[in-house]
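Need tokens for this chain, all 327 residues.
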Amino acid sequence: MPPVPLEPVDSVHITTLVDNACDMLLPDQGPAKRPSLGDTTAPRLRAAFLEGSETFDAPLAEHGFSALITIRKNGSERRVLFDAGLTPDGLAENMRRLSVSPKGIEAIVLSHGHFDHTTGLDGLVRALGRANLPVIIHPEFWSRRRITIPGREPFELPSTSSSALRGAGFEIVEERQPSFLLDGSLLVTGEVDRSTGFKKGFPVHQAFRDEEWQPDPLILDDQAAVLNVRDKGLVVMTGCGHAGIVNIVRYARKLTGVEQVYAVIGGFHLNGPLFEPIIPATCKALAELAPEVIVPAHCTGWRAVHALAASFPEAFIQNSVGTRFEL
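Here are the structure tokens for all 327 residues:
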């Protein structure tokens, strides 16, 4: 496959709008700039039991993911929203709390169809009015899914309504193959090649196809966003990383022909007994890819985060809602 021509950008800012954790005591660390409890310009809330009757209107954590990608190129800025979080109002409320305007977003990339990455579009539409934005998805995004853990009743995951999105004014763009946004400056991977031997998929995951529930371990709609920062290398952003974080980064290099990996940010999906056994292999393979910045988020899992922090002490940065990565 010949490399696709991903246009270099001068810089990228990525702001975490939704994630599983929020720590307002984290200091700035390298490219990570943190909101501060001491910020006198931050929004305030009424608090009847406090002297002065107010407190900080801090961002909230939830089990989901969303980030605002801002690229800078030739003196101009352009913005794309990547995923939308778990609850109807979580994304919009955190944007308000962080003084991040939804105006100026040019497109939305949804990493896959799981509801902890899509539900916040509800509040975003109410904040924007009629959306009139392209939404980039894989065709299997719409699949009905469920989790089938042995010994428990299957749990069907809420799925996104096509008619509701279109009714809100979104332009749905379905692509299995790689596609570009922002005049070739942002690459959406589409379906990711699975090249590792240790990432076997999500064995308890099923999809409803041909009028029956069928195994769906690969979750083929899982896709990532890729940017190329001039003189630094690739920035790879994932939602859950169901395709495998190593597979995703390798595929980004294969697609673009750019070997240098600068930053990897997002969910690595290494949590729980099904995935923890592949943490060592993942760390070893990531070491070969040598990213300068590693930010595991959302569904990476406690044990994997600690293993990554130990394996990459110079590259590892803890994520938190409100963190802005200046890359």
